From TrEMBL:
This is Polyprenyl synthetase family protein. Signal peptide: none annotated. It comes from Subtercola vilae. PANTHER family: GERANYLGERANYL PYROPHOSPHATE SYNTHASE, SHORT CHAIN ISOPRENYL DIPHOSPHATE SYNTHASE. Keywords: Magnesium, Metal-binding, Transferase. InterPro entries: Isoprenoid_synthase_dom_sf (IPR008949), Polyprenyl_synt (IPR000092), Polyprenyl_synt_CS (IPR033749).
């Protein structure tokens, strides 16, 4: 078993235990709250645990091998406590990610997530199947907002538990500040995404690409890669030089990660991604891919493209037409080139750093995995 596999196994077990422990608390308040535990458990079973893995290797990049249980080297109580804190922190990141997904699906009016109905759709179905009064859609959205809030609260609870296990108050404070920073950035990045979907007609054409890039940085890149790396390092009390090296690697890699997501959101195989093909087109995402496409279109073609983009009723033929427009514009190829360039920049920064050699190898492998994936 590889160290990453061992870590994700521990995180999976920790997630299951945490939800199982909280389920009776919810039901004790009212039996009607059982769906919150059920839906959370189902959502958290999915995912690739990328954030947990980056947190682990950010920690390993600045720590010693003898801190890792099962490494073949005797670990003392302090080392075991720190590793326990790391597992809690990795678990917290997965809860935070799940909360973001629930809220993101509400905002985007998405039907599915990880091959299952999105949380608001599950609550909507609960309303309909129970013959409740009122509007099922409104009930589903309102309930899912609260589920996302609960998952966010759980993530903060897990961070608190992790930091209580540390003996170094400076490391604890630094990790807390990084988590708070990440939470602020992704929340505001989500708003910037909403803003672009509505504001693009009144924004100068030459600003649209830069604004789409800004969304990538704050909505996804930082919290998907950079922040987990830094959180792991801060847990061990890493200094500014190591943290700067991890940021120099993490940010361009996070951008490449999201650019790959943007391509999958338009061209991905639904059976692999767990979301319908072309879903980003129905949602009207104003991504870098879209900005690059629009740059090449004639005024008439651009008007038609803009009219179709964001129509939730797009049929398969219209989706196919938009996909062809994007492909023929050369935008998809340009995004592939951007992915390669950002990934290369990340790997150059990693190679030039003074981080642990084993971690550098594993982080390079992760970089390849997240930028060349098909789901």
């Amino acid at each position: 078993m590889t160290q990453s596999t061992h870590l994700t196994s521990l995180v999976d077990s920790n997630i299951a235990s945490f939800v199982a422990d909280r389920a009776p608390i919810l039901v004790a308040i009212a039996p009607d709250l059982a769906p919150f535990a059920e839906f959370s458990r189902d959502l958290l079973r999915g995912g690739k645990r990328f954030r947990a893995q980056f947190c682990y290797w950010g920690w390993r990049a600045v720590s010693d091998a003898d801190l890792v249980p099962d490494s073949g080297v005797e670990s003392g109580p302090k080392a075991k406590a720190e590793f326990g804190a790391l597992v809690e922190l990795c678990t917290a990141l997965e809860f935070f990610h799940a909360a973001a997904l629930v809220h993101d699906d509400i905002i985007d009016n998405s039907d599915t997530r990880r091959g299952m109905p999105a949380a608001h759709r599950r609550f909507e179905a609960l309303h309909a199947n129970s013959s409740f009064t009122g509007n099922a859609s409104d009930y589903g959205r309102a309930s899912a907002i609260l589920m996302g809030d609960l998952l966010l609260a759980f993530s903060d609870e897990l961070v608190g538990q992790a930091l209580e296990m540390l003996s170094d108050p400076r490391a604890s404070r630094a990790a807390r500040l990084e988590f708070n920073r990440m939470r602020t950035e992704v929340t505001l990045g989500q708003y910037l995404d909403i803003l672009e979907e509505g504001a693009w007609p009144v924004v100068a054409e030459n600003e649209l690409l830069a604004r789409a890039e800004r969304v990538i940085v704050y909505k996804s890149a930082k919290y998907s890669v950079e922040a987990p790396l830094v959180l792991g390092a801060r847990l061990h009390g890493a200094g500014d030089e190591h943290v700067a090296a991890l940021r120099a690697f993490g940010l361009p890699l996070g951008i490449a990660f999201q650019l790959r997501d943007d391509l999958l959101g338009v061209f991905g195989d639904a059976e692999r991604t767990g979301k319908p093909s072309g879903d980003d087109l129905r949602e009207g995402k104003r991504t870098v891919l879209v900005a690059l496409t629009r740059e090449t279109l004639s005024p008439g073609s651009r008007r038609l493209f803009d009219e179709l983009l964001g129509d939730p009723e797009l049929d398969a033929e219209q989706i196919s037409m938009l996909q062809a427009t994007i492909s023929n514009s050369g935008a998809a190829d340009r995004v592939e080139a951007l992915i390669s360039q950002h990934a290369e920049n990340a790997l150059h920064a990693l190679a030039a750093s003074k981080l642990g050699e084993e971690s550098k190898i594993e982080l390079a492998n992760l970089a390849t995995l997240i930028t060349q994936r098909d789901a």
